[in-house]
Amino acid sequence: HFFTGMAGSAQYTWVDITNKFAAASRTLPIGHLVKDDNFGLFEAMSAIELMDPKMDAGMLCNKELCQVTSAEEAIEKGLLPLTPSNEDIIGVSDEILSCICTWLNGHSLAQTVLTCLYLHSVPEIKSPVLVSICNAALKCCELIYCVISSASCFEEEDFLTCTYGYNLTPNMSTSKVISLLKEGEDELNKRVKRGEDILPSEDAILKRLTFWKYFVIVLHKIQMFEKKNMDALKEDLKVLFHTVSPMKSSLKLGTQAVVTNQKHRRMVGFEYLVNQKLLSSTPPRYIEIMSRDTMCEYLMRLFAHIELVTKISDSTTLSSIIRFFVRFSEQNPCVLSRSCLFYVFLMGNKVLGEEPFTKIIKEEIKSFSYPISFFSCYMNDANVKSLVNNFLDGIALGIQDYLQAMCHNKGRQRRKLGALLPDLSDLYKKSENFDNMLHTYLSNSDSSANHMRSFSCWVLFITVEVMIKYLLLGWDLELYGIHEAHYIYCYLEYLFSWLRQTIICGQDQVVAGEALEKKLAKRNRNMKRKKKEKTNHMVLQMTNVYQMMSHGYIKALEGFAIQGKLDEYLDKKFDNEELRFRQRFLPFNISMPIPLEISKYPSLSYIIANAPKGQEQDLFRESLENFTQVKQILDRIPPQHSVDSLAKVVKMNCVQMGLVVNGHCKDSKKPPILDFSICQNVPFMKVV
Q1: Residue 57, Cβ neighbours under 10 Å: how many?
Q2: Confidence of residue 1 (pLDDT cuts 50, 70, 90)
Q3: Nearby residues of 584 by Cβ (< 8 Å), 6 or more positions away
């Protein structure tokens, strides 16, 4: 209860309701609770316990450790030197970089970068070099924030967007920030050219000025990306990458952070508890700032990944672009490099800021199934052209979501790919209806026109690819146990058979489309017939490889189960294989491809119960035959397709299964080990 006093200030009368609250709660049955509409699960999980030093940051239980609460107070107390020494400038620059890298690792801005008091009082600094470094740091944070926020390829555990009311934008343009860094750089370079001796600390400052200059330049070119500047961006990235090693060699010249007996970090120009009160929803704990050696390694990986991003311009087809995104995500890039990839590739919903995304999709569908609606004689029809373009716009949104999902961290990738499947299923239904509509429309004017399944076949191909990626990510995230490997590979074999069917269907349509185009060209001599490249059969060949490998794993696991190597995982009392099966493949309950039913799945329990004596040897031989066939196929693949790691795993599995056929570890009850260290998606089966 409160009332307003004479002076207008609120006066409170507190009433203790503890006993009444406890008595009322005892009237509730077990498992019941009282919930307010404005206080749900999210609010309950985000709530803190007031007056608890471990939860309530306002308690300031470590108040004695916090020397100042603002930059102004630090200046008044003389704790923030406005004319710092060279060693302090080097140390502050390195510590800011460590804080930026820690921020990119998922920590809040207030607990990392904004703990630097110099960044709150740049106008008061009397050192021009430190002023230029602080402005560069703020500008870099602004550009990083812009790129990551625009790409939207992050989750709360990756990147925190809250700036807590602070303005990250320095009161100057990017060109002015670069100009100030260049002035300090030029001044030191002139002294070197005149033959003057410069101190090691001055040389270290020169290296940092160069680093900050190119860091701002690279981030600015990414944020304002234009394809015509790609070569310049690559050159700047090379220079930036090579500035890290000289900077790393001079880390010890700067002032180092000191950890006190109370495990509190102290560094000139920094107060790590200055923003503690801003973090009401988080426990008042220290954030472990990244060490400077680790920071340099982090930056080198970051720049190497961004340099790899620039190679996306070499991928000209949608299939090669998807492969690029998949291979890029396999390298575990940080949130900034992942965001750079999506931001650069789809700048303003245009590929590399130039051509429409629908153009690449159209070319991909054309090479996959060659719809007759793409023929020039039919595209001259305004209705056909409008219908096709509108449909391609709808497809573009689904493919864009797919690429954006591949730019998230791997845990979120899997969740987003699972959430994408219902949308792709709806897109398949629409594409099927669209194919039928175009077929009816075109056949009315030309009875030889057949547009059946041209778009829907390609959409189904993409859907199956997403499902396969979803399952393979489970191995990468270590979500499956060895006893689950059997039905995972059963479903993979099932999906690869669907993938194979869609590829063959697409190839048949290409052949039919080319025949029809040739026929129309003879009928209409004015019609220009473009020479079409043959469909690449490599995708079909690799699909056959993975399908046979999946079958090889299935038969090997069935043999191991009969030998009793999986008994400890198949607990009859608590295990329910049907329940596990349904839960693992719950996102696959879509219209197409038709889900694999549990009734059609040969469970391990059934195989063990009904296996005749000696059947495991037949299963092992069948597995060995599958891996041997795969090895022969891979040996014939040209070296430019880079299947070395896959071929190595297959050869090792051939050797291992050969040993098992001959009775290796026959009496052992230890389960086989699936080793993914050589190839990320294909394991080596190690029998112990």
Answers
A1: 21
A2: very low
A3: 484, 487, 488
SS (H, E, C) 176-211: HHHHHHHHHHHHHHHHHHCCCCCCHHHHHHHHHHHH
> Which tokens go with 81?
């030197």
Q: How far apart are the first and last CA of the chain?
A: 72
Q: Name the token pair of 602.
A: 């040969």
Integer Cα distance of 552 and 628 in angstroms: 10
**Are 634 and 646 in contact, with CB atoms under 8 Å apart?**
yes
The total number of residues written for the chain in this structure: 688
**266: phi then psi, degrees, rounded to nearest 5:** -125, 135
**CA-to-CA dists, residue 618 to 376, 457, 560, angstroms:** 57, 38, 12
DSSP 114: G
Nearest alpha-carbon partner for 287 in 526, 37, 541, 100 = 100
Residues 6+ apart with CB under 8 A from 480: 474, 488
Q: Which residues are registered as beta bridge partners of 10?
A: 4
Q: Please state, in angstroms and rounded to a whole number, the distance separating the CA atoms of residues 598 and 337.
A: 41
Contact 426, 172 (CB under 8 A): no
| Calpha distance 38→24 (Å, rounded) | 21
How much is the pTM? 0.83
Q: pLDDT tens across 532-544, in order? A: 444 467 888 889 9
Strand, helix or coil at 569? coil
Name the pairing type of β-strands 258-259 and 10-12.
unpaired
Q: Which residue has the tokens 């009160």?
A: 277
Q: What gap in Å lies between CA 17 and CA 328, rounded to an integer?
A: 58
pLDDT in tens, 577-634: 788 888 888 899 888 888 888 878 777 777 777 777 778 888 888 889 988 998 988 8
Q: Which amino acid is at 115?
A: T
Ranges assigned E (strand) in 125-284: 258-259, 265-266
530/84 Cα distance (integer angstroms): 70
